[in-house]
Amino acid sequence: MFRIGHGYDVHRLVKDRLLIIGGVTIPYDKGLLGHSDADVLTHAVMDALLGALALGDIGKYFPDTDPTYQDADSMRLLCNVALLIGREGYRVGNIDATVIAQAPKLARYIEDMRLNIAQAVGCDLSCVSIKATTEEGLGFTGTGEGLAAHAVCLLETV
User: Fold this and answer.
1) Binding site annotation covers 43?
2) What residues does the record give for site: Transition state stabilizer (predicted)?
3) Please, what is the end-to-end C-alpha distance for the chain in angstroms?
4) How far is CA 36 from CA 3, 14, 40, 75, 111, in A?
5) Whether the Cβ atoms of residue 98 and residue 152 lie closer than 8 Å to each other
6) 141 is in an annotated binding site
7) Does 4 appear as a known binding residue?
8) Are 22 and 113 in contact, with CB atoms under 8 Å apart?
9) Mind listing the pLDDT tens digit for each residue in 21-75?
10) What letter would DSSP give residue 73?
11) Does 137 carry a binding-site annotation?
12) 134 labelled ligand-binding
């Protein structure tokens, strides 16, 4: 049996925060604002995985009202989601994600992001695709106000 999920996340870019995407710290003069480390890609992936099994979203499991998750490492949260998926009798078939960012350019970090996500969810690297795109200067991502990410996944029974 197969299940498909979609996730979306967005965070504002601000000064004095690290920019962490897909578990990779990227040198940049701004970072993403959020209760956790605000890893927009990893959050979209988690929501896709949870959504595939109709389990809600990351706010249900890691609420921003809980101080436990203040500055939390999103890759560790993704590992917890992967365990939950496994307990439900599923494993990741594949993940396909897109990060939307006018800047910084992300191409040189994509392979590390893929590896981090594959390791966190326990799948082969070939099952994780990550792409980056700009919005040609349009919208909040195009003007550099924030970043967004979309992710889809296919889960299959174990």
Assistant:
1) yes
2) 35, 134
3) 9
4) 28, 14, 10, 11, 23
5) no
6) no
7) no
8) yes
9) 999 999 999 999 999 999 999 999 999 999 999 999 999 999 999 999 999 999 9
10) -
11) no
12) yes
Asked whether residue 145 is marked as a ligand-binding residue, the answer is no
| 65 among annotated binding-site residues | yes
Question: Among the CATH numbers 3.30.420.40, 3.30.1330.50, 3.40.50.720, 2.30.40.10, which is that of 2-157?
Answer: 3.30.1330.50
Query: Is 58 marked within a binding site?
Result: yes
- Residue 2 marked as a ligand binder: no
140 appears as a binding residue in the annotation = yes
Is 6 annotated in a binding site? The answer is no
pLDDT of res. 35: 94
Of 62, 81, 102, the residue nearest 153 (C-alpha): 81
* Helix/strand/coil (H/E/C) assignment for every residue in 14-31: ECCCCEEECCEEECCCCE
How does strand 24-26 pair with strand 19-21? Answer: antiparallel
